[in-house]
Design a protein that fits this description.
Length: 198
């Protein structure tokens, strides 16, 4: 039997109050400590259940646990990416490799930003907008995820994301998702995007 290391909720790379006024402390505390934590727990639960299924040779519920694995695993990883996508010193326009790829893939930063914002605002119900690099196609794509796991493009590497589940913004922005998206641009950590691009 393989040794299993449960996933942990990592600390944020900045204090809870550090993203104010664009992202307020009470929203961030709840979002990280309760919502993200629930995905970490759900991922650990799914992995433990699949380990048990293997050891017992009983795969009657494998479809259920695969769904749980995709939902909670994607939820955990996208939240990690979301925290790393923001910085108290963020915002502005990117430089370096990501700037060149944005130019080549979208025709300029302004057009990229407009498409990304429109995409985030248009996500139906709960989900994400994601800037991703496709190593095979050698270009950037703006994708959405409904829930955490639907509508991705296989093979892409996510670089930057905004969470547009209501829990991400409702306390501070109520139904004004577009205002949250607009404020979020002041936090974007382009340095981390370039690091992920590698
Ligand atoms: Mn969330």
């Amino acid at each position: 039997m393989i040794e299993r290391h449960p996933h942990q909720l990592s600390e944020l790379p900045y204090p809870y109050h550090a993203l104010e006024p664009h992202y307020e402390e009470r929203t961030l505390r709840l979002h990280h400590g309760a919502h993200h934590k629930a995905y970490v727990d759900g991922l650990n639960r799914a992995e433990a259940a699949l380990e048990k299924a293997r050891s017992q040779g009983d795969f009657a519920l494998v479809k259920h646990w695969c769904r749980e694995l995709a939902f909670h695993g994607s939820g955990h990883l996208l939240h990690n990416l979301f925290w790393e996508s923001m910085s108290p010193q963020g915002g502005g326009e990117p430089s370096g490799p990501v700037a060149q790829l944005i130019e080549a893939s979208f025709g300029g930063f302004g057009q990229f930003q407009q498409q990304f914002s429109a995409t985030a605002v248009a996500v139906e119900a709960s989900g994400w907008a994601v800037l991703a690099y496709h190593p095979e196609l050698k270009r950037l794509e703006i994708l959405t995820a409904e829930k955490h796991q639907d509508l991705t493009q296989w093979g892409t590497r996510p670089l930057l994301t905004i969470d547009v589940w209501e829990h991400a913004y409702y306390l501070q922005y109520q139904n004004r998702r577009a205002d949250f998206v607009k404020a979020w641009w002041n936090l974007v950590n382009w340095g981390n995007v370039n690091k992920r691009l590698g």
